[in-house]
Design goal:
By secondary structure, the protein is mainly beta. The protein has 3 helices and 27 strands. β14 and β15 form a beta hairpin. The longest helix is centred in the N-terminal third of the chain and has 18 residues, at 66-83. The protein is globular, with a radius of gyration of 26 Å.
Length: 411
């Protein structure tokens, strides 16, 4: 973290507050001179106005520009020198360590007979990925990102990992030095061996296995050399990767070259019949939806069928049963409702299963022949169970007031 001159008065006030909380006096700002920052002579004329930009050189990549790297080093050294003098710092650090030092587990994902999950013993910088063969199986370590790089700058993306349907393979995304880019690798689960597959320029992606042989993922075109970390990212596209082949052999599944600013991600239904593509424009929860029938997908050159067009509402896939797709949407329902559409019908129509209620419907899951609905009530989670027709409603006790996530399963 770096702090400029204007931050010091606020920092001093914060230090006084923290010092008072611990019964200690806050130190004064150090007398050492603030690191100098070179001013350049860059001037541009925009719309007839001359605009000076003396610090543009700081936009250069810190990885390749020694002057920028030196500036960051001096700024950090000055900031850390001050923070180290705060008398309450270690008091807060020890209490935070106490509060976070407990064992925790992520939600398991079942594939074949195996269960995959994240596990943290307490104070590990990153959770490790473990697997069990069956519910009563012994936990076995698959990935420990804490050992990937000595300085700890390589990370497992906790949202970007997915086992193959039979549990034999695991695809996962690696992040380097806080970059938005991900590199997807594939692991042989039985041998805990990383295979040769390496998918680059992945960003804003999911991993959606279509079968045990390959998966869908999203990436941008490779940037030009030297622009990897500051070029504008355009022409996001959905690709299919077959395990054991080079990335250059991947198949393009869906792209919108006429709209290079659109982004596309995919999910595959639990029966692996449909791939549902969600297209977004910016960060608004307004999407277009397209569908691929995977039973005929590659034979028909990935035939993509539009389902929802126009960025007007949010549509979140729940799952499918047979030819029926289920979605949570805020279309004509600001607090969201549950809708279905049967793709086997000659003219598919939307049907309401659970109408909009007084609270926001956050998620729906199909588990067996029931639905679990989660709502937000006064910033706390409320969960209910209904049948596949939307009733009767019964509450699922969560014992405490708080937030809950998960409720995943399969029809």
């Amino acid at each position: 973290m770096t702090l400029g001159r204007v931050a010091w008065p606020a920092l001093a006030v914060l230090a006084l507050a923290l010092g008072g909380a611990a019964g200690l006096r806050a130190p004064r700002v150090p007398d050492a001179p603030y690191p100098e920052t070179r001013r350049d002579s860059v001037v541009e004329t925009l719309f007839g106005e001359r605009i000076a930009d003396p610090y543009r050189w700081l936009e250069n990549d810190v990885r390749g520009d020694p002057e920028v790297a030196d500036w960051v080093r001096r700024e950090n050294a000055y900031t850390e020198g001050y923070l180290a003098t705060l008398p309450a710092r270690e008091w807060f650090a020890s209490h935070i360590r106490e509060l976070t030092d407990y064992e925790r587990f992520g939600l398991p994902r079942k594939a074949g007979r195996r269960y995959f999950y994240l596990h943290n013993r307490g104070l590990q910088n990153q959770s490790v990925l473990e697997v069990r063969d069956g519910l009563d199986g012994t936990a076995r370590l698959l990935l420990d990102p804490n050992t990937w790089q000595a300085d700890g700058t390589a990370a497992l993306d906790p949202e970007l990992w997915e086992p193959s349907p039979d549990g034999r393979l695991l695809a996962y995304g690696v992040q380097q030095s806080g970059s938005d880019w991900r590199v997807i690798h594939v692991l042989d689960v039985k041998r805990a061996k990383v295979l040769a597959d390496e998918l680059r320029w992945v960003n804003q992606s999911s991993i959606a296995w279509t079968d045990r042989h390959g998966f869908l993922y999203s990436r941008f075109p490779a940037p030009r050399p030297g622009e990897e970390f500051h070029a504008l990212n355009l022409n996001h596209a959905l690709w299919y990767h077959r395990v054991g082949t080079a990335q250059a052999a991947d198949s393009l599944v869906y792209a919108t070259p006429a709209h290079p600013e659109w982004n596309h991600t995919a999910r595959v239904t639990s029966d692996h019949r449909f791939a549902v593509i969600t297209t977004s424009l910016g960060t608004d929860a307004r999407h277009e939806i397209h569908v691929i029938d995977l039973a005929a997908g590659r034979r028909r050159n990935w035939e993509v069928r539009p389902l929802v067009q126009g960025f007007t509402h949010d549509w979140t896939l729940v799952d499918s049963i047979g030819s029926v797709l289920w979605f949570v949407t805020n279309w004509q329902a600001p607090r969201c409702r549950l809708m279905t559409i049967d793709l086997a019908e000659p003219l598919p129509q939307w049907h309401e299963v659970v109408r909009e209620g007084p609270e926001v419907l956050q998620q729906a899951s199909i588990i067996g022949d029931e639905l679990i609905l989660t709502y937000l009530h006064h910033a706390a989670t409320r969960a209910f169970v209904v049948d596949l027709h939307g009733g009767p409603l019964r509450a699922l006790s969560l014992n405490e007031i708080g937030t809950a996530a998960g409720f995943h399963g399969k029809p």
